[in-house]
Design goal:
There is one protein chain. It is built from twelve helices and ten strands. Helix 4 runs antiparallel to helix 5 and helix 6 packs across helix 8. The radius of gyration is 28 Å and the shape is globular.
């Protein structure tokens, strides 16, 4: 919860920073802040990360806490936001009202595109005209076409909710607590040949479904932590062009050449110094590690990987076979860790420990005339732009071609999308996929210009919000 008054007198410390547009933050539900202004629930836009307040407005104008139809899921923090769909029929079929008796009000307290002033009585929390007893907020009201984030213009629907609450459930806490508790548990009967040295921990839960989900979540979490560490150290080892001994030797040579030049200028030594600096640059640089090589190295990581392979092989012996099972599992782990640019989940890439490289981009030696005229890109900028598109549109949108057998064992949602030409018509969406699941394929236009056109509808959204506020009797000066 947070106070809706950006001039809140109860806030202090870092909350008094001008970049924080709300008041004091509270960990428990409450109607009012200590300053007397209404307090509402904090939410975060999963598309851009902007923080807002979310409230519910009744027909009588009461701005209270939003009462949602759906029950709270303790595993909400572990759920990746749904991928967008370009099928209007599918969106219409999935669209459901979030609340029966309330309209949603998103409080941004920033003069963003689409926001408008809303005056709320401090004590009664009822909308009205601006007086000395009201607090003015900048917000966006729901008008029937879906609430949107004024910072990024992404629309929230029942099929694709984008506003995440800041609640922390038991699974999130236990994910960090249980590994610490296991450190103090006694070793098992065969500690050298079992995970976590055979240590055991008994927990209780009155929900069978919650217990099953928690057990699977803990298993996947321990797996991801171990695999992530293996990938990081493998990339660190394999990507270094030169050994530490070579780098140290080159640095000694450079130091000797600098001392010689300090005594007196010598063109020959200066040329040798330049060569040594180039050699040091090459030795210190990082070379990308290919996907097949990294998968092979991961499959040769010994006992930990063998334990995971045996477990997966017991579930799917036809997928993780005796001949190629190790390679298949290693590639599945790599796809799970690096196959998609996640918005919410932490992985090696989002933490800045490992970067994804595309060798094909280095083969681009010129910029087409239409791109140069439209954007003024040189070759370097064009490569950077294409990498961003591959990271956030192709990989981030789930358009990698992944074997269906691998997809079933990734342990997280990984829906398949397909890229089509910008002006191409969609293929019959009733066509079933090769997996026989009957899942409707999703098609996404390959024109990256749509990433830059979201702001073009901002003017209409502002007028729409103002019309709604005027109709509801929300005004102010």
């Amino acid at each position: 919860m947070a106070c809706s008054d950006k001039e809140c007198s109860a806030r202090s410390g870092f909350l008094a920073h001008p970049d924080w547009h709300f008041g004091q933050v509270y960990a428990d539900p409450r109607k009012h802040c200590d300053c007397g202004s209404p307090a509402y629930e904090l939410v975060t836009c999963t598309s851009c990360g902007t923080v807002h307040l979310l409230a519910g407005v009744t027909e009588g104008g009461l701005v209270s806490h939003l009462v949602s139809k759906s029950s709270v899921d303790d595993f909400e923090l572990d759920i990746e936001p749904a991928d967008e769909t370009d099928d209007p029929e599918e969106e219409e079929a999935e669209e459901l009202p979030v609340s029966i008796t309330q309209f949603r009000l998103l409080i941004a307290n920033q003069p963003l595109d689409g926001t408008g002033p809303v005056d709320i009585e401090r004590e009664s929390r009822v909308m009205g005209d601006r007086t000395e007893t009201t607090v003015r907020v900048e917000g966006v009201e729901e008008d029937g076409s879906g609430l949107f984030c004024p910072a990024c213009s992404e629309t929230d629907t029942s099929f694709k909710p984008i506003f995440q609450t800041c609640r922390i459930g038991a699974p999130y806490l236990l994910d960090g607590i249980l590994p610490t508790l296991l450190e103090f548990a006694p070793d098992g009967s065969d500690p050298a040949n079992t995970p976590w040295r055979g240590r055991k921990l008994l927990t209780f839960n009155d929900s069978r479904q919650g217990t099953a989900r928690l057990a699977a979540n803990l298993q996947q979490s321990s797996e991801k932590s171990r695999v992530g560490a293996l990938i990081y150290h493998l990339v660190l080892r394999e990507s270094n062009a030169g050994s530490s001994a070579d780098i140290e030797r080159i640095n000694r040579d450079i130091h000797s050449f600098k001392q010689a030049i300090a005594i007196g200028p010598n063109p020959v030594i200066e040329s040798m110094l330049a060569d040594k600096r180039d050699e040091l640059k090459r030795a210190s640089s990082s070379n990308p590690v290919g996907f097949p090589k990294l998968a092979q190295e991961l499959a040769n990581q010994g006992r930990d990987f063998v334990d995971m392979l045996d477990r997966y092989r017991s579930f799917a012996p036809t997928v993780f076979t005796q001949e190629n099972g190790a390679s298949t599992l290693a590639k599945t782990f790599l796809i799970r860790e690096m196959g998609k640019r996640r918005k919410r989940r932490l992985n090696l890439e989002s933490m800045g420990l490992v970067a994804t490289a595309y060798p094909g981009l280095e083969k681009i030696q010129r910029v087409s005339g239409s791109v140069a005229d439209a954007a003024g890109f040189d070759v370097s900028s064009w490569r950077d732009f294409l990498k961003i598109c591959l990271d956030f549109f192709v990989r981030g949108g789930g358009s990698l071609a992944i074997d269906n057998d691998w997809r079933r064992w990734l342990g997280l949602p990984f829906p398949q999308t397909y890229l089509i030409e910008r002006d191409a018509r969609k293929i019959n969406t009733t066509t079933s996929l090769a997996s026989g699941q009957g899942e409707r394929p999703k098609y996404r236009t390959s024109s990256f210009t749509r990433l830059c056109t979201q702001s073009s509808s901002g003017g209409s959204r502002r007028s729409r919000s103002n019309r709604y506020s005027t109709r509801r009797g929300v005004g102010g000066t």
